[in-house]
Amino acid sequence: MNCEICGAFEETLFKTDIEGAVMNLCKNCSKYGKVIGSSVQVNNKVQRKAESESELKYDYLNEIKNALKEKGLSIEEVAERIKCSPKDMKKIVNGEILPDKNITTKLEKLLNISLYEVELVSDSASKRDTDNLSFGDVVYIKKSKK
Ligand SMILES: [Zn+2]
């Protein structure tokens, strides 16, 4: 786990109360607040799920391609329907670029498919800042893609 202040990697972090906010800190940084316990592993599964909420499925390209075949839609037709340039749509289907959330959502609706790993996320969990992935979280997400 990484210290939430300086980012140092430690096996064990100290749960520290800093002006009412509880953070997991290394020994050094725990001096800034009141240590209320130690924490070895983060095992908040709800939070983990929320962080992978916007992860595209591993085989999202196949999902798209299969759906296109099934519905008999051409890339150009789909592009027009979801207001995306045919050029970009081609790149997306070829896996050259990742579709942004807006396009993905429209594709899901149009093709009646789901492209994300996790569909249901509770509101409170999804509000967490997903930019602050620690080392452990990144490893977890990579593992979960298998
Ligand atoms: Zn620290």
> What count of structural domains?
2
Bound molecules: zinc ion
> Could you report the average pLDDT, rounded to the nearest whole number?
80
Give the structural class: alpha+beta
- Number of distinct beta strands: 3
Q: What is the 3D form?
A: rod-shaped
Walk across the major sheet and give the strand order. Answer: 2-1-3
Tell me about the largest β-sheet.
3 strands, antiparallel
Helical content class: 40-55%
What is the topological layout?
Layout: E1 13-18, E2 21-25, E3 34-39, H1 45-51, H2 60-71, H3 75-81, H4 86-93, H5 101-111, H6 123-126, H7 135-144
Helix pairs in contact: 3-4
Zinc ion binds next to loops.
Q: Describe it for me?
A:
The chain has seven helices and three strands; from the N terminus they run βββααααααα. The protein is an alpha+beta fold and 146 residues long. The protein has two domains: 13-52 and 127-144, no CATH class; 60-111, 434 Repressor (Amino-terminal Domain), CATH 1.10.260. A three-stranded antiparallel β-sheet has the order 2-1-3, with no helix packed on it. It is rod-shaped and about 65 Å long. The two termini are 22 Å apart. Bound molecules: zinc ion.
